[in-house]
Amino acid sequence: MSTCIATVCLSGSLTEKLTAASRAGFDGVEIFENDLLASPLTPEEIRARCADLGLSIDLYQPMRDIEAVPADEFTRNLRRARHKFELMRRLGADTVLVCSSVSPFALDDNDLAAEQLSRLADLAQEHDIRVAYEALAWGRHISTYDHAWNVVQTADHPALGTCLDSFHILSRDTDPKGIEDIPGEKVFFLQLADAPRLAMDVLQWSRHYRCFPGQGDFDIAGLLKQVLRTGHTGPLSLEVFNDVFRQAEAAPTAVDAHRSLLLLQENAGVAQLPAPAVPSGIAFAELATPDAQPITEVLSALGFARTARHRSKPVDLWQQGQARILVNTGTAARRESTALAAIGLESPAPAAAARRAEALLTPVLPRRRTPEDVPLDAVAAPDGTELFFCATGHPELPDWQNDFTFADEYVAAAARAASADEAALGRIDHLALTQPWHHFDEAILFHRGVLGLSPQESVDVADPYGLLRSRAVSTAEGAVRIVLTVGATPTDGDAPAQHIAVTTDDVVTAARRYRAAGGRLLPIPANYYDDLAARYALPAHELERYRELGILYDRGAGGAFRHCYTRTVGRLFFELFQRDPGYQGYGAQNAPVRLAAQHAA
Amino acid sequence: MSTCIATVCLSGSLTEKLTAASRAGFDGVEIFENDLLASPLTPEEIRARCADLGLSIDLYQPMRDIEAVPADEFTRNLRRARHKFELMRRLGADTVLVCSSVSPFALDDNDLAAEQLSRLADLAQEHDIRVAYEALAWGRHISTYDHAWNVVQTADHPALGTCLDSFHILSRDTDPKGIEDIPGEKVFFLQLADAPRLAMDVLQWSRHYRCFPGQGDFDIAGLLKQVLRTGHTGPLSLEVFNDVFRQAEAAPTAVDAHRSLLLLQENAGVAQLPAPAVPSGIAFAELATPDAQPITEVLSALGFARTARHRSKPVDLWQQGQARILVNTGTAARRESTALAAIGLESPAPAAAARRAEALLTPVLPRRRTPEDVPLDAVAAPDGTELFFCATGHPELPDWQNDFTFADEYVAAAARAASADEAALGRIDHLALTQPWHHFDEAILFHRGVLGLSPQESVDVADPYGLLRSRAVSTAEGAVRIVLTVGATPTDGDAPAQHIAVTTDDVVTAARRYRAAGGRLLPIPANYYDDLAARYALPAHELERYRELGILYDRGAGGAFRHCYTRTVGRLFFELFQRDPGYQGYGAQNAPVRLAAQHAA
């Protein structure tokens, strides 16, 4: 189906918005009146620009408070409409949106509404224009889609149809079943917006918190199926008012928007995408650093051993159990300080995973950097992290390890160190990545839609300098877990903190060894342990060990959880992490204390 | 009355919070458990730090989900309480807050709640501690102050009383009348928070949108009077959860907080402040600039004449009608680019106005910079703008003009230019100032409480790169009007735009003259005028003039409004402004077009 986006969804001047929509692959746009008024281009120039960009103008939005008004006001409205219809001819737009009146002077009179809409449609028809009438959820008298359709039926005019808007329908919990009774040719337009379920005034909710399909709580795919059963074939058009998107750069927002429509069509069963190949583990985490010394000190102290070196690039593999860290000191390292640059996702079908990512507008990275490299499929996540779809030790798949020369003695040493040692680090439990502030919703949708990970509940975490939002995405069994966070304000993303949590079955011993090897643990205040004693009847010696090492503890429904933190190198720190089998969380309860300790460190 | 603030109101570490509270003049603090847990100081050290800072610890907040629970859970709760009471002894805090249970396991059993609270109070009494029981608005079974008081009455324990919280009471629209039936000695604590009226889930509303008294829509003074009628004499304590305050610097937030309590006491009639001396006009606007050339070019083109020079400083007075602009090129100019540095407020009682400002914690500026200057009372507004309380031509008051040497020929020329000329600029209609993002609520309260200006409704204005908030404060007759705005994100305040709107009775002629004199007007897109033609039946020649000059037009309930803008110099631009007598607004309808035009310029 063709796709369309309202200019109000994107930031910037009208031409910035149009360019972003075109580059992201949209077929058309809805032009909001304010964007046109503020543009120095004439309607003819806007029309030409859209044509150059391959965009149709599917809708124009200038009409408010038109119908069910006293006669003299309606005369003024018709006068205004004539001007707008002439403008639309210049613009090359053939459908105009009319929202149900919110005017305090509007009358509760369906027949009058139908009659005046019919007269408006007469005028529209003279200009070859169609009028799409939509019920605003906060309309003065007409606020449901079935009521609006009822008025359109009464008017019974060929140039008058209805516009369906998912937000207005689903925010009011109207039963959308009745949509199927509307003939498809009378659905003149379809606007789509999702939203988180918020218990708040519907007007404020609509104006500030709409989001793209799949980013909120509405069943947009279900609604779309119902609309398609009417026989409607028009574009899928996004109309999203969102305070964050208004501030964000238009280009990535447009990509996010278009991706949401592709996923929506897949969910509704009207388009096929390459099937997801859900990752089955984290093959490696790759750190880029301008100076390997500090981070390899931490890795050594944690018990990692350097087991291999890349054959053509300055990249070392550090390994312990199934936890693999690549340390890249090459010029490819984009970051200024030590940071996580790439994640190797163990994939059952790397090529298929990359095809899906590409179909979902994800930038694809070169398959091989040098001719002798293993051809690995890689894409860029919204925060710039490179994601490699790869395999470890599967003969039928390209194995990333083939790029590395393993030193036998190191491998043997690493194996010895790890074998039958409960305190050894086993694997990467999760990665925590701060996302760009304006693209948090995009990041969640990306990880869900492109990678096939499931988002958990969003939680607020109190940092001493503001509330952070945090949301984990993971596979069903937790083989891949990524915690996406976003700071309190846009500028908090300037130097995002990241961390790698590595599992151990004995965090006390692991922490002691790390310290004995010269590693520094994040100190946790004594008051925290006094509180722990008040909350749980932990044996005194156990509590004493936690206090000594700065180990945090918590208990959830599924079991207990113990963890501690290394010092930060660049933007990165490590977490040692002992999880009872039933515990599914990430220790958010302890995050405020950890964050305060990091600020104080 | 003594004043207190909860540590959760302020950002930073516990010691940052305590220091800010002390410096702002608070007598005590409520310590939130998380702030203590995250602090490296022992309870004894915290106690000593508070004593050093002159702060009492009026309340400790560690208790949740205590009462009306099954016996084994209550046993665990008592165990935990014992730890906390011991901690409170170390801390030197004698009152603990217990919020009504939100646990899904809590039972709907008043007698059980009373019995368990009574047992908790037994334990508290052993530690010389009092338990203040408060109904959370979202409590599982107990959610109103009268219900909580009923349980306290049933328990009838000397160490158990109630805590009243204005948010929990007023957010639920509970009738606060019943408060007066509670004996004052059983009101163990009083927490105050205001909030804007928001139709949203009360828990989210409380956690993110509380504000200081006078910054929201609740009648906190009315509630306070009712509480005082009980005979309660305890501290007035602020407990405000606010996402913005959490991010803001602690020091100014604490000042804002304390100011709100001073104003609250004045409103409730329990404390006297120097009475407000509401300004009666704008005597002058003072611009600081590193280079006077560009701005004086604009002033000249606007028809201002240089009429006087400061006797001891590099400050010129530019004048037209009653509009007076000082151009300061001295080293005192703090700003890096041309910006509004000070406002002269015509005051009926300058000294009294300054005394009130000082009593309300406003930084007072030196009365005279050099020995020969007129002693002018001046203070600093929250955004750093200097406010001079002054008089123009009142022999009984210190006249700021006495610092200036007037050149007769200039004065005469200025008078000739202005006399009987409808297009001449008459006076400063309003000043528009972008406020620091984290201190917008503070700025509103400052202008209302300190200066005696009345805030109008807050409006959202769509900028191409985000929504701006704007709120005007003014005197009843509009002699002083200041429009306070705040950008979409915290960083937007880095280079705040400011403007000075000057009245004319003939904006078309004034704009033409400005252009003829070499001034550049902000160009407005032609599409705007096509829309104007659609909206209003303006005569074609009138519309043509507006189009030619970039004059914006709108009509409100009270009349019409015409305005246009100069180019921006540094951070500053001018608005030429023709207001029908009945029009009370600031042309917010046109702001999106103006903002887009400025971005494009």
Instruction: Give the low-confidence spans of chain A.
Output: none
Task: Give me the side-by-side strand order of the main sheet of chain A.
Answer: 14-15-16-13-9-12-11-10-17
Shape of chain A: elongated
Mean pLDDT, all residues of chain A: 94
Multimerization status: homodimer
Q: What are the main properties of this structure?
A:
homodimer, 601 residues, alpha/beta, eight-stranded parallel barrel
Summarize the model shown:
The first copy, chain A, is of the alpha/beta class and 601 residues long. In chain A, 33% of the residues lie in helices and 25% in strands. In chain A, the strands form three sheets. A nine-stranded mixed β-sheet of chain A has the order 14-15-16-13-9-12-11-10-17. The first copy, chain A, has an eight-stranded parallel beta barrel with strand order 1-2-3-4-5-6-7-8, surrounded by six helices. In chain A, strands 19-20-21-18-22-25-24-23 form an eight-stranded mixed β-sheet, with helices on both faces.
Structure in words:
The structure is a homodimer of 601-residue chains. Chain A has 601 residues and is an alpha/beta fold. Helices cover 33% and strands 25% of the residues of chain A. In chain A, helix 5 packs across helix 6. The longest helix of chain A has 21 residues, at 71-91. The first copy, chain A, is elongated, with a radius of gyration of 28 Å. The interface between A and B is large, with 54 and 54 residues.
Task: Lay out the secondary structure.
The structure is a homodimer of 601-residue chains.
Chain A: E1 3-6, H1 14-23, E2 28-32, H2 33-37, H3 43-52, E3 56-63, H4 71-91, E4 95-99, H5 110-126, E5 130-134, H6 145-155, E6 160-165, H7 166-170, E7 187-192, H8 202-209, H9 220-229, E8 236-238, H10 243-247, H11 250-267, E9 281-288, H12 292-301, E10 305-310, E11 315-320, E12 323-328, E13 339-346, H13 350-359, E14 364-365, E15 377-380, E16 386-390, E17 404-406, H14 408-418, E18 428-434, H15 440-449, E19 454-463, E20 466-474, E21 481-486, E22 498-503, H16 507-516, H17 526-535, H18 540-549, E23 552-556, E24 559-565, E25 572-579, H19 591-600
Parallel strand pairs in A: 1-2, 1-8, 2-3, 3-4, 4-5, 5-6, 6-7, 7-8, 9-12, 13-16, 18-21, 22-25
Antiparallel strand pairs in A: 9-13, 10-11, 10-17, 11-12, 14-15, 15-16, 18-22, 19-20, 20-21, 23-24, 24-25
